[in-house]
Amino acid sequence: MLGAIIGDIVGSVYEFNNYRAKDFTPFFHPKAFFTDDTVCTIAVADALVNDKDPAATLREWGRRYWDNGGWGQRFSLWIATDDMGPYNSLGNGAAMRVSAAGLLAKSVEEAIALSNRVTEVTHNHPEGMRGGAATAVAIHLARSGRTACEIRQAITQQFQYDLTPSVDEIRPTYRYNERSQDTVPQALTCALEATDYEDAIRNAISIGGDSDTIAAIAGSVAEALFGIDDKIASSGWRFLPEEMRAVLQALYAADNFVPVRE
Predict the structure, then answer these.
(1) CB neighbours of 129 closer than 8 A, spacing ≥ 6?
(2) How many angstroms separate the CA atoms of 215 and 232, rounded?
(3) Is residue 243 part of a domain?
(4) φ and ψ at residue 125, rounded to 5 degrees
(5) Does 262 map to a domain?
(6) Using CB atoms within 10 A as the burial measure, which of 1, 7, 168, 180 is most buried?
(7) pLDDT digits (tens, 9 = 90+) for 200-229
(8) Does 246 map to a domain?
(9) What is residue 87's three-state secondary structure?
(10) Number of structural domains the chain divides into
């Protein structure tokens, strides 16, 4: 899950100022910060690890970090309204926050069930549900030792995403889009084509578009595929307040990950 958070942090400065190449430096820009994507990712992990109501937990964390900004218009209304139900979103917010479901699942079926549980409270449109489930399944398969090629084939078969275009083929014409069906396949390709975690994030930034969210989705899968270099992990860890670190540590303890070293 730290993989998603670091992707969000690295991508934070490029969301509205795209950089269409992989050679950006430094990896963590001096103005980088965690966005609403990280807040929602932490909230979902908190809900799953501690068996909380995901709607209540998303609202709790969202209100706590309200001033962090970056909330979508309908999602911000949903956070602020206690009795508002799901609003049929097909946005990529479900996929960017779902990494805990993929890490905790013990089977493909459980990955989908956990994803659906935390997605249907807001993103109950079929495309929103598909994006969250596909990301969770990709993470589960990577954690289970499946190769990038095997994951690509499984996701294509089960979720009917076209994962054939390469990063180099996506980059020239890709434009900003927040729809799940127009961001999740591209983000998954950025991870599945990568050589390591850092390369996945550089792929994600390089295609432009909704950079922080694409990098968060790609980073969640890349962490499960490759792990994260200690230096990058430690740098990303330092961006987070203690209460977020506590949720991450609880998730990794539940999943038998090695806790992040400070």
Answers:
(1) 94, 115, 116, 119, 120, 123
(2) 14
(3) yes
(4) -70, 145
(5) no
(6) 7
(7) 999 999 999 999 999 999 999 999 999 999
(8) yes
(9) coil
(10) 1
On whether the CB atoms of residues 6 and 218 are closer than 8 A, the answer is no
* Model pTM above 0.90: yes
Structure tokens belonging to residue 247: 């949720």
Interatomic CA distance for residues 196 and 203, integer angstroms: 11
Q: What are the residues whose beta carbons fall under 8 Å from the beta carbon of 6, sequence distance 6 or more? A: 201, 219, 228, 232, 233, 236
Which residue type, as a one-letter code, is found at position 104? L
Domain membership flag for residue 162: yes
Backbone angles phi, psi at 29, to 5 degrees: -65, 145
Q: Is the dihedral of CA 217, 218, 220, 221 positive or negative?
A: positive
Domain of 190: which CATH number?
Answer: 1.10.4080.10
Q: What is the pLDDT of the chain when averaged over all its residues? A: 96
**pLDDT digits over 142-183, tens only?**
999 999 999 999 999 999 999 999 999 999 999 999 999 999
Domain ranges, residue 42: 2-255
Residue ranges of alpha helices (H) inside 160-241 are 167-170, 184-192, 197-206, 211-226, 230-237
Per the structure block, which two tokens stand in for 224?
């499960």
